[in-house]
Structure prediction request, 132 residues.
Amino acid sequence: MFNDSTAFGSFSTDSVAKARDFYGGTLGLEVEFRDDEGMGPMLRILHPGGGSTLVYEKEDHVPATHTVLNFATDDFESAVEELRGKGVRFERLPWTDEDGIARDVDGMMPSIAWFKDPGENWVAVMESDGGD
Prediction:
């Protein structure tokens, strides 16, 4: 039924303008903004490897309690430092180190760090496993 369709993810925010600044400016992603008269402001985040995610403004927005976007990179340490340089604060969780990075000492899982977007939705940067 859906073999010939195109799928994309979506999540809400309290401000598409702030999301546009964050995803387009801070994270440097390509974004498309539109303000539909009936549906309101929306942002499409175009993913570097293809595909997209729709971010829509919702008056009674409640931040997601799960990770809404994961960015895998071949140079995790540089990505973390660049994000820090842009003011991104990594969340310190029970399983992260003092820098907010989860590192698997056995090497079974990639290193990962979580942060929040302006709508308080969870986003992650992680080591690429090389499998794209």
In short: The beta strands are 9-13, 30-36, 40-46, 52-57, 67-73, 101-102, 112-116, 122-127. The longest strand covers residues 30-36. Residues 103 and 111 are 5 Å apart (CA to CA).
